[in-house]
Amino acid sequence: MSKKLxxxxxxxxxxxxLLAACGTTPDEEAFxxxxxxxxxxxxxxxFNATAWKGAQDAASELDIEAKYLESQxxxxxxxxxxxxxxxxxxxxxxxxxxxxDATAASAEAxxxxxxxxxxxxxxxxxxxxxxxVFNTDEAAFMAGYLAAGVSKTGKVGTFGGIQIPTVTVFMDxxxxxxxxxxxxxxxxxxxxxxxxxxxxxxxxxxxxSLDDGRAMGETxxxxxxxxxxxxxxxxxxxxxxxxxxxxxxxIIGVDSDWTQTAPEFTNIVLTSVLKKMDVTTFKAIExxxxxxxxxxxxxxxxxxxxxxxxxxxxxxxxxxxxLQSELDSIRQGIIDGTIQTSP
Length: 343
Known about the structure:
The chain is an alpha/beta fold. The chain has 11 helices and 14 strands.
């Protein structure tokens, strides 16, 4: 064997040993979990960001690769999903009700591709799609009762981004929680911005504009609301800014704990209605990795802690022990089915 061939042969042996040590061969690729966002973007401090946390947790704990594509508008949904299919992603996570049609079309066209969609479930379902849905009305009901219990003006408010079920379910629960407070206490705390009976109320028409959130918050405060729950992704941050400037008014966050995702507003965040999409997204990714993935639906509830209320943090002194005891009883009533949280 020539000296040149000997050197090449030695290099190949060393390279093979290194690949073996890494548990990888040239033909293997890392497991990819790929997320397609709604138009709010990956850093919306809401449902896109929470689902992405689940993907990042999976990347860290399961030693996989996590990627995302941001949708700037609804026409990007199909394009981004197709890009990830061509890239060979092992699971594609689509985030938001508005991606329902695009995800279904791709699932039908690519039956071997695994999907999980946040805030959507199909009936009938697909073998290759796991829907993640959440009974957010349960936690929002508690938030409404809490808001009524701390309100000084007797008026609380809510509004949505776009009038879709995953938004109005929050508003339904919130309004019914206030109504339940009135029934129990003989009070007449008013909900501005939403009527669950007629399904009419206030919406900005988008999930992006902080200016719209500011304007909506100012309108509700002008009408007397001293606790406001925006259900509009980043739009709600505009509301928080308006509240912080005016003072004497408090906000209830949604999806994630706003004291963590928007700490600049900690001093006005009474609580947040948590939708633990990070946990369900992580589990969906893990199931593909370990071969247990099955299509269908997973439902987050108060009972399985898929939804919950965040701690009161800096505003804990606003919540009396009596009010907290009532909330604890309400939680149990919701779990055992004796308290109705949706119209």
